[in-house]
């Protein structure tokens, strides 16, 4: 600064403080790992007035595309499929003229856990998938052992009575009512005597 006497005077130092705009997102969504067929969800936490949300998915071309109907704080996937493994998501949060995009999260889908239904049919059995399906679907009950395990006895022959039981169970609830007297002379009705399991 120059005064009328050609003198100079320096003002005191001033500090300019620029306040950062308050962040809308207070808790970022987190990546999720689930088994195939299980539900999955991502949630963002935000603070502000009249908040709006728009979840986006990363397309194969690398661009972000809005997920139709995903306009809440939580993005839900009702059933995770193997096709969704590695898919990425983010959410755009807005409040008035403020906008903030969340961090990117990833959905990892692992193989569905397989439970061995019959003790004598291990996972490496040639027909494990088919035989295990028979048990888990309720079409074959096997033979229950004293320790609670079940045997399928895959190399034993199938008798006609067992085959009839398989077919009946596979047909579902048809409303069939058995007659009071069996039409087959060699088939007697069981009451509380118990039946061989098949």
Structure, described:
With 198 residues, this protein is α+β, with helices and mostly antiparallel strands. 11% of the residues lie in helices and 25% in strands. Strands 2, 5, 6, 8, 9 and 10 form a six-stranded mixed sheet that branches. A two-stranded antiparallel ribbon has the order 1-4.
Briefly, what is this?
The protein is α+β, with helices and mostly antiparallel strands. The chain contains two helices and twelve strands.
Name its key features.
two-stranded antiparallel sheet, disordered C terminus, alpha+beta, six-stranded mixed β-sheet, single chain, elongated
Write the layout of secondary structure elements.
Elements: E1 25-27, E2 32-35, E3 40-43, E4 45-46, E5 52-58, E6 64-66, E7 74-77, E8 87-95, E9 98-101, E10 105-110, H1 128-136, E11 143-144, E12 150-151, H2 160-171
Parallel strand pairs: 2-10
Antiparallel strand pairs: 1-4, 3-7, 5-6, 5-8, 8-9, 8-10, 11-12
Helix run count: 2
Mean pLDDT across every amino acid position: 87
Write down the secondary-structure element order: EEEEEEEEEEHEEH
Poorly predicted spans: 191-197
Give the distance, in angstroms, between the N- and C-terminal Cα atoms: 104 Å
Major sheet size, sense and barrel closure = 6 strands, mixed
CA gyration radius, whole angstroms: 34 Å
Query: Percentage of helical residues?
Result: 10-25%
Number of strand elements: 12
């Amino acid at each position: 600064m120059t005064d009328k006497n050609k003198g100079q005077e320096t003002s005191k130092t001033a500090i300019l403080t620029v306040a950062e705009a308050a962040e809308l997102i207070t808790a970022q969504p987190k990546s999720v790992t689930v088994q195939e067929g299980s539900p999955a969800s991502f949630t963002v936490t935000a603070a502000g007035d009249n908040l709006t949300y728009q979840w986006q998915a990363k397309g194969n071309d690398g661009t972000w595309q809005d997920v139709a109907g995903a306009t809440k704080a939580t993005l839900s996937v009702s059933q995770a499929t193997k096709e969704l493994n590695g898919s990425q998501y983010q959410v755009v949060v807005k409040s008035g003229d403020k906008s903030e995009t969340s961090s990117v999260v990833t959905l990892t889908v692992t193989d569905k856990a397989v439970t061995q239904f019959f003790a004598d049919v291990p996972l490496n059995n040639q027909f494990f998938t088919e035989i295990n399906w028979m048990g888990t679907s309720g079409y074959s009950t096997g033979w229950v052992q004293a320790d609670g395990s079940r045997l399928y006895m895959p190399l034993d022959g199938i008798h006609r009575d067992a085959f009839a039981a398989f077919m009946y169970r596979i047909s579902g609830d048809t409303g069939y009512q058995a007659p009071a007297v069996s039409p087959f002379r060699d088939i007697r009705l069981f009451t509380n005597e118990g039946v061989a399991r098949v």
